[in-house]
């Protein structure tokens, strides 16, 4: 690991508008069925503009992100293909793709752009239609169901092709960090199971209150239908079987269609728009190839160190944490690595309900990947959308207890990238 460093921005940058579409399977939603990727992206972009109180002509430049546009949308240059859908034909733009880290990279690129002075008002958005695939020779609104046989071979694209990929080897390592943690701090398998089930439970409690979430049926209701009096009995039962050594079905993130966008501008002009500005204080970054053991732990630690040093903040200054938890255990493990929870003790905080949206150390108040849904490239941008709502006090019934001033987001994915922004509300 070679340590990195980030400096201070040449000028402060703030988020002035956000927008997001519901996450889910458009093929099963009559209100969304038939929408193309361009329409999905464009809808979120127009929402963000309305949120900021600006028009398409006010956008100077935009960034388009998706995890895998060729696979999911048969598009090689999707940024140019979506411009027609939100009124920016001819505007400069860039497409980028960093798998599940795409949304966080999208924010960083927009902020760097404005901080450099190149542009004043920049839109950055991400979209993924991950529940289906294009039908060859047919218009984009016609899609077919995706299968495991379709997606599994494509996962090899996030591995180093030199050796392991050529042999068909490699793994995502869903249990790697959790197994290390369990052995280091002396947890039993049943304790790990209880911790992960508790995370699933509180994630669903939040998602029930979130109109954009994919899964909104309370576990109490599901448990009752299956003959259980207690939802935790259901979560630890054979009706919720393990899919890895530790993860159960409800601890796996369901693939979703989704999109989200943010708009940024120089902080000095941010107060002239409709909403309370949210300043982006910095973004720490680190990358390690997928096959390196414990890579998620290392790059989370390094990215966090960078952004703490650049901003002068400490873990106790963070009021809210959002974590890319398509591997559910990441929610706990990243929180400890960043100092948001005490090292080796965070699992107890989970069991006490302290990391729930209504706890004193909230994580993922939108429901997390396992209930909100996972639209790959768009998920990180949806995290940013949620953080902005929480910092503005606009999250409705899932608004966290403490009036938050500062939020940290741990983005991760793509074999493997880690981007960690810190956001702060401007009064």
From TrEMBL:
It comes from the Bacteria. Pfam families: Thiolase_C_1. InterPro entries: Thiolase (IPR002155), Thiolase-like (IPR016039), Thiolase_C_2 (IPR055140). CDD domains: SCP-x_thiolase. Gene3D superfamilies: 3.40.47.10. SUPFAM superfamilies: Thiolase-like (SSF53901). Residues 297-417 form the Thiolase C-terminal domain. This is Thiolase domain-containing protein. The lineage of its organism: Bacteria, Bacillati, Bacillota, Clostridia, Lachnospirales.
């Amino acid at each position: 690991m070679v340590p990195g460093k980030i400096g201070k921005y040449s000028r402060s940058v703030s988020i002035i508008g956000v927008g997001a579409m519901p996450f889910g399977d458009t093929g099963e939603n009559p209100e969304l069925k038939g929408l193309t990727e361009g329409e999905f992206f464009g809808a979120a972009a127009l929402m963000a503009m309305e949120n900021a109180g600006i028009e398409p002509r006010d956008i100077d430049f935009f960034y388009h992100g998706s995890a895998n546009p060729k696979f999911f949308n048969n598009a090689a240059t999707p940024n140019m293909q979506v411009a027609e859908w939100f009124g920016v034909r001819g505007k400069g733009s860039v497409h980028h793709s960093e798998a599940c880290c795409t949304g966080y990279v999208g924010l960083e690129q927009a902020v760097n752009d404005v901080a450099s002075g190149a542009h004043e008002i920049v839109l950055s958005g991400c979209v993924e239609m991950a529940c289906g695939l294009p039908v060859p020779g047919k218009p984009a609104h016609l899609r077919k169901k995706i299968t495991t046989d379709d997606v599994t071979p494509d996962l090899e694209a996030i591995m180093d092709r030199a050796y392991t990929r050529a042999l068909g080897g490699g793994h995502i390592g869903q249990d790697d960090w959790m197994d290390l943690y369990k052995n280091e701090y002396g947890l039993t398998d049943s304790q790990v199971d209880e911790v992960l089930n508790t995370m699933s439970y509180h994630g669903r409690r939040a998602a029930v209150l979130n109109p954009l979430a994919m899964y909104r049926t309370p576990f109490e209701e599901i448990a009752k239908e299956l003959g259980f009096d207690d939802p935790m009995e259901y979560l630890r039962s054979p009706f919720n079987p393990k899919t890895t050594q530790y993860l159960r079905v409800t601890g796996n993130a369901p693939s979703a269609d989704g999109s989200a966008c943010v708009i940024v501008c120089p902080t000095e002009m941010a107060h002239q728009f409709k909403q309370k500005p949210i300043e982006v204080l910095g973004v720490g970054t680190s990358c390690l190839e997928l096959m390196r053991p414990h890579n998620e732990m290392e790059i989370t630690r390094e990215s966090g160190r960078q952004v703490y040093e650049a901003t002068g903040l400490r873990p106790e200054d963070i009021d809210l944490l959002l974590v890319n938890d398509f591997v559910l255990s990441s929610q706990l493990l990243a929180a400890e690595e960043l100092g948001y929870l005490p090292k080796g003790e965070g699992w107890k905080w989970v069991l006490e309900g302290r990391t729930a949206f209504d706890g004193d150390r909230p994580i993922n108040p939108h429901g997390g990947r396992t209930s909100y849904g996972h639209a790959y490239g768009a998920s990180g941008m949806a995290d940013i959308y949620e953080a902005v709502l929480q910092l503005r006090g606009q999250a409705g019934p899932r608004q966290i207890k403490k009036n938050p001033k500062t939020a940290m987001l741990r983005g991760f994915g793509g074999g493997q990238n880690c981007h960690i922004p810190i956001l702060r509300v401007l009064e």
